């Protein structure tokens, strides 16, 4: 596992972006292996999942940077190590324009909740597998994005080169994304539509040992 800093406990390393929460999960280990609860419906995560997805990524892959108008994400790293870069695009947010990079690993399991309007991307240090839940079914019209390496993002990525999808290679600048976001936000407000609310709190540790 790469020697990278882990920010897995909000009480020790508070997140800078309003509404983003990173809560530690409990890993139960015995001579057979280990067991970790990733989600419980009783936890207040800010995300009421309608869909779960699993993603496998090779070392050096970067996914993003993407942002959603309506859906919130809840994710955990099952295997490997990933740095998550975030930037707050929400107009009126107390942390508008704030960026942060955190690193998550299966060595210290945690669950990350990202509200709508917080742009995010993922850089994978090694072959990795993560799972994520979304509060709304995926809709291409709900997703915007920008170049991961735009200096205006202010995200201190751990690499200067990365493997991208063709779609992510063609994403515009942060400035263009901000203009698109503002236009969509104005449209939503004008026609009386509202964005998903997001009120996450830290999750309790799992209470069940491995079966």
Q: H/E element string?
A: EEEEEEEEEEEEHH
CATH architecture: Sandwich
First CA to last CA: what distance?
A: 27 Å
Q: Provide the CATH top-level class.
A: Mainly Beta
Chart the SSEs and their pairings.
Layout: E1 21-24, E2 27-30, E3 33-36, E4 51-57, E5 62-68, E6 73-79, E7 81-88, E8 99-105, E9 110-114, E10 118-124, E11 128-134, E12 143-145, H1 166-169, H2 174-190
Antiparallel strand pairs: 1-9, 2-3, 4-11, 5-10, 5-12, 6-9, 6-11, 7-8, 7-10
In short:
The chain has 211 residues and is mostly beta strands. It contains 2 helices and 12 strands; from the N terminus they run ββββββββββββαα.
What does this structure look like?
The chain has two helices and twelve strands; from the N terminus they run E-E-E-E-E-E-E-E-E-E-E-E-H-H. By secondary structure, it is mostly beta strands. The protein has a single domain, classed as Jelly Rolls (Sandwich). The chain has a five-stranded antiparallel beta sheet with strand order 1-9-6-11-4, with no helix packed on it. A five-stranded antiparallel beta sheet has the order 8-7-10-5-12. It is globular, with a radius of gyration of 17 Å. Residues 1-13 and 189-211 have low confidence and may be disordered.
